[in-house]
Write a structure and sequence with these properties.
The chain is built from 1 helix and 10 strands; from the N terminus they run H-E-E-E-E-E-E-E-E-E-E. It is mainly beta. It has a domain of about 130 residues: Immunoglobulin-like (Sandwich), CATH 2.60.40.1890. Strands 1, 2, 3, 4, 5, 6, 7, 8, 9 and 10 form a 10-stranded mixed β-sheet that branches. A hairpin with a 2-residue loop joins strand 4 and strand 5. The chain is elongated and about 95 Å long. The N and C termini lie far apart (about 95 Å).
Amino acid sequence: MSTDPGGVPPGVSKFGYDPRVNWKLAVPVLAAVALAACSQAESATPGILAADPWVRATVGTEMPEMTALFVNLTNPSEEDRMLVSADCGDVAAKVELHEMVKVDGQMVMQEAEGGLPIPAGEHQHLAPGGPHVMLMGLTGELVAGGEEIECRLEFDDGQTIDLVAPVKEFTEEQDTYHTHAPTEDS
């Protein structure tokens, strides 16, 4: 193969491309690839975000066989979501999603049938006196200061969030916090 005096083979520009290639065909292909990438990015629905998880310590409480997981959830999407379940491994025999309701003029907690709503574009604070994840039948005492609980939250769209929640003291406990709504069994 012969080269020109600059060392470039015939038919290849000094910039390294072959001008005989039809670059007019490459432009639509590159545009289609770019458009597909943009549409995938736009269609990806942002997931629920979780912040500041914690679990109430049980040492010295009136009901050490149960506690609650609290966390701040944010739904940045344009669609309402539901927290449908939680799993905290072998820490508790039973885990339920609870909400607070008024019964006979008193605020009591009950299992949230169908889950806990996280409205589109809003925050849902799972907090004392409000909705929370209830852990019942604990397998041991939970001590504040160093102990952590691993839990997985699952949402109606299949998203899961794994949390590591430190165990903390909760000294502002209200009398109604452990009051349950009557059930068909009671």
